[in-house]
Amino acid sequence: MKKQITLLSGDGIGPEIMESAKEVLQVIAEEFNHDFIFHEHAIGGNAVDAYGEPLPEETLKAAEEGDAILLGAVGGPKWENHPVYQRPEQGLLKIRKSLGLFANLRPIKLIPALIHASPLKEEIVAASDIVIIRELTGGLYFGKPSERRDNGNSVVDTLSYERYEMERIIEKGFETALSRRKHLTSVDKANVLESSRMWREIVEEKAKKYPEVTVEHVLVDAAAMKLITNPASFDTIVTENLFGDILSDEASVITGSLGMLPSASVREDGLGLYEPIHGSAPDIAGKGIANPLGMILSASFMLRDSFGLEVEANAMEQAVNEALEQGYHTADLDVKDGTLVSTKEMTDVVIGSLSARSISDDICYM
Ligand code: NAD
Ligand code: IPM
Ligand code: MN
After folding, report:
1. What does the pLDDT look like over 51-71, one tens digit per residue?
2. Which is nearest to 295 in space by CA: 24, 43, 46, 54?
3. Yes or no: is domain 1-114+258-366 CATH 3.20.20.140?
């Protein structure tokens, strides 16, 4: 299979973890006889430096034309005081909006080897298997242009949604729940926000179309609490943009580290942008110690969901599991009696597991 993959490494640890994902994908391509062609483009702070804007036109064009997009992370202290249009994060928001990637899928599944890596008790995290379906192109992030008024003493951000925007993400929530354990938790703040009351109405309407799915409404503050006291009570969560952003970073604690979680941002026709949920981690950038697994798992997510390469995606995920079972871990993971490794070493261990797997397959075939 021949695929054109747009690589947007971004800033901070972005290029370090992207290198890992690229190396692992190259091994997959060799072993399974695929042709992955990588096209690297600028986004975020490095694009501001080189082009004066965080999402150059040529990057957007390449992203639209390729078969799938892999993104590292954007942002960092260097650009913190730039005007809004030159902030790295605006590049990320713009690519999501311009490509219409309205649904962000954030699976949170405990890898058994990391059961002790979470600060939460083993019996609490043990059965966690959740997917957060986060609305990605509306809400507070995309309201009327935010503004400061009255000499900077007053400020406005606007939370606005169109009905169709809520309908399509809520549908995605039901469809996802249907393909899983058929339980949907809709998270909102309907006791305060009008937008949440409309959201709840739409969830109730859609529920009639999905009688097999049990639906529960949970207010976001309570959901934040339940997520770490009883994560096993969740299956599929559907929620608006900002709530989904916050809850998914919180949920990463279940898996042992923010560095473990992948995500997919998709639209109806299947074009997908795959990225870890974490940011550019300026505090560890350049040290070669970042956890590459969220990025590698984002690449396997791409293989499965955009290219239909189930066997290859499973092989990659299996290799990640094996590396962790052998006790290898980066510094963000609190693994007792394990082997602390760098980003590059972790990548090599994953590649080693992948290669060992294909050698044992060869032996089986002989
Ligand atoms: P962050 O996610 O970058 O980091 C939070 C903490 O988690 C840090 O201590 C960091 O070292 C650690 N961490 C994150 N990823 C890690 C990994 N792979 N391995 C090991 N440790 C990891 O969040 P932040 O510090 O609040 O934000 C830093 C910058 O990243 C900001 O500019 C922010 O806007 C940006 N950001 C970008 C994205 C994105 O591009 N998708 C997402 C979140 C934040
Ligand atoms: C994420 C990030 C982004 C978001 C920022 C950097 C705009 O936190 O992808 O989770 O809030 O969506
Ligand atoms: Mn976030």
Report:
1. 999 999 999 999 999 999 999
2. 24
3. no
- Fold classification of 118-255 is Isopropylmalate Dehydrogenase (3.40.718)
Is residue 221 flagged as an active site residue?
yes
State the virtual CA torsion across 231, 161, 214, 174 in degrees, nearest 10: -90
Residues 65-107 pLDDT 10s:
999 999 999 999 999 999 999 999 999 999 999 999 999 999 9
Please confirm, yes or no, whether 129 is among the known catalytic residues: no
Please report which helix (H) or strand (E) contains residue 97, including its range.
helix 88-98
Residue 181, token pair as written in the block: 């354990």
Q: Pick the catalytic residue from 3, 11, 22, 141.
A: 141
Q: Which residue has the tokens 């390729």?
A: 66
The per-residue b/e assignment along 246-285, b for 16 or more CB within 10 angstroms, e otherwise, is ebbebbbbbbbbbbbbbbbbbbeeebbbbbbbbbbbbebb
What is the DSSP annotation of 35-75? EEEEEE---THHHHHHHSSSS-HHHHHHHHHSSEEEEEE--
Q: In sequence order, what are the residues at sequence separation of 6 or more whose Cβ sits closer than 8 angstroms to the Cβ of residue 352?
A: none
Q: Give residue 284 CA to ligand 1 midpoint distance, Å.
A: 9
